[in-house]
Write a structure and sequence with these properties.
Blueprint: H1 2-14, H2 18-91, H3 96-100, H4 104-116, H5 126-133, H6 143-180, H7 183-189, H8 213-229, H9 235-255
Helix pairs in contact: 2-4, 2-5, 2-8, 2-9, 4-7, 6-8, 6-9
Protein name: Type IV pili methyl-accepting chemotaxis transducer N-term
Organism: Winogradskyella echinorum
Keywords: Membrane, Transmembrane, Transmembrane helix
Length: 256
């Protein structure tokens, strides 16, 4: 085909038909440009299809990851609700009349969970971090979903500050109790240790800790932190954000 065009070109020049040659040359250029545009179109279409395939894979992985996150936040909310209820009961014991009516074993049952577990939520973010760090977030065409995914990391950072404050207060509570109470009494009452052993704190009454103003102050602070953590700006807000992301992801997968 190229040889045929070349011969036709040479014949036009030989016959001194320059105007026809010019028209022919322009036509040839147009054909080349059209060929290039078609090739680019095919290449762009292939790239677009590859990007959509990768987007589909990301969406499927994000769906799985955020389902895990929803299960985890529901667990954290439930555990923290129980913590708040326990703290409310403990705070009533600073009333001497209430304290006198409660058994020592009940005090151990109330204080044990406070010292034995942290307020926590650890989301799964492997897929999300990979998408963001690799610069592939723009592969997700849904603008609202992109924004929600990008802001999720910021929400977790805000939560981390709150959890650090709660952890600090819990450590202060634990430190005060270790100075004035008997941890051995708690673990014995809760049957955490099976074997009896002699203890220098056997004569220590854990009711005495409720005479400490400092312990009460830190307990109030911890209670307020725990209650706020379940609020709309933290755990409850994170749950709503996860549910929104999951809904958007599922809609995108259904429409693909």
């Amino acid at each position: 085909m190229i040889t045929l065009f070349r011969r036709f070109r040479q014949r036009l020049l030989t016959e001194n038909k320059f105007s026809k040659y010019l028209i022919y040359a322009i036509g040839e250029i147009i054909l080349v440009v059209i060929g290039i545009l078609i090739a680019l179109g095919i290449n762009n279409n292939n790239n677009f299809n590859e990007q959509r395939k990768l987007e589909q894979e990301y969406l499927t992985s994000l769906q799985s990851e955020f389902k895990t996150n929803l299960d985890r936040i529901n667990t954290s909310i439930k555990v923290n609700e129980q913590r708040v209820q326990t703290l409310e009961k403990v705070l009533t014991l600073f009333n001497k009349n209430a304290l006198d009516t409660i058994r020592p074993q009940t005090i151990s049952q109330l204080l044990g969970p406070i010292f034995g577990s942290d307020i926590q939520y650890t989301p799964a973010t492997g897929v999300l971090n990979d998408i963001i760090s690799s610069g592939k977030l723009n592969l997700i065409l849904n603008k609202n979903l992109r924004q929600d995914l990008a802001s999720f990391e910021s929400t977790i950072n805000v939560l981390s500050t709150q959890l650090n404050d709660a952890d600090f207060t819990q450590r202060k509570l634990t430190s005060l109790f270790f100075k004035n109470g008997s941890a051995k009494t708690i673990v014995t009452d809760l049957k955490i240790i099976d074997k009896e052993f002699q203890s220098i704190s056997s004569n220590t009454n854990n009711k005495d800790i409720f005479n400490s103003v400092e312990f009460e102050n830190y307990l109030v602070d911890y209670y307020l932190l725990a209650k706020a953590t379940n609020g709309p700006l933290l755990f409850s807000g994170i749950k709503s954000q996860i549910e929104s992301i999951l809904k958007e992801v599922e809609n995108e997968l259904e429409n693909k």
